[in-house]
Amino acid sequence: MAYKALFTQPYSTAEMQRVAELGIDATYIEESAFSEPGFSLPEQLRDIDLLVGYNPFVGLDLDQLPALKFIQLVSVGFNHVPAGDIQRLGIDIAHNVGATRFPISEWVLCQLLQIYKKAKVFCRQQQAHQWQVQTDILELTGKTVTFLGAGNIAVETARKLKAFDCRTQALNLNEDPVENIDEVIDIARIDEVLPHSDIVISALPATKETFHLLNGDRLRAMKDTAALVNISRGTVIDQQALIEVLRSGKFRGVALDVFEQEPLDAGDPLWDMENVYITPHNAIFSDLSASRVFELVYGNLAHFVRGEPVEHPVHFDRGY
User: Fold this and answer.
1) CATH number, domain at 108?
2) D-isomer specific 2-hydroxyacid dehydrogenase catalytic domain location, by residue (predicted)?
């Protein structure tokens, strides 16, 4: 049986040939086209079985795609998809789980080393042609790293941190052992754990339960010398409370790739704070990330064609 697919993310000729060999007739439309005024999906594509992309939904009416059976997102997050329509129409949907853990874990290491080695100070000194020794330099050796969440990003980052002789622990919904994590602790004990953590890394999804999990009280309870990293969802941290805590002189450094509102407003105080490192939701990218995402996409398309359960289905009720 032949299947028709619409791709809104570009892949190489060789990669699309592999898709064709699964018996899938794929058409590519650049995703930006879906947000153009007056966009209408060509009539000949309204009988597609499969949809692969990030966010073409702004220009798609799923009710006009009666044959659509499966959506593969290239993103981890799915708060941009029309969940109600997808559930009502009985369309299966999966997201990207695991393909971005490698570049994200490297980004975390980069930020921690910048914070511990005072990278901003040395960059300024270089620009000013200033030779001044800095002795307030920290090592990662022996530091206690607490992950909020124990998913694939935490596991891969913890594996890399082991090379620095860090002690790793994770706050999670259960205390089942997790690879590369020295100790998994019930997240209900968060107020007990945070004050003793040298580094806190948020790797949690955006759910009702995780909204502002790191509120003002919990931020203030952390070590003054702690490093805080957020690579998951901006809503996990109360951003206004974070600004207020930073103004009090708290934290060795804070590295943020995600924010409550994106893009971050040009007038936001976080931009100008000396101990804050900002990237624009960029940690997922690398020279290898696109090929890894394709392999995930290809694997699930193969499962679909063979009538097998797809991997990483979206659970709208859980939020991940």
Assistant:
1) 3.40.50.720
2) 41-314
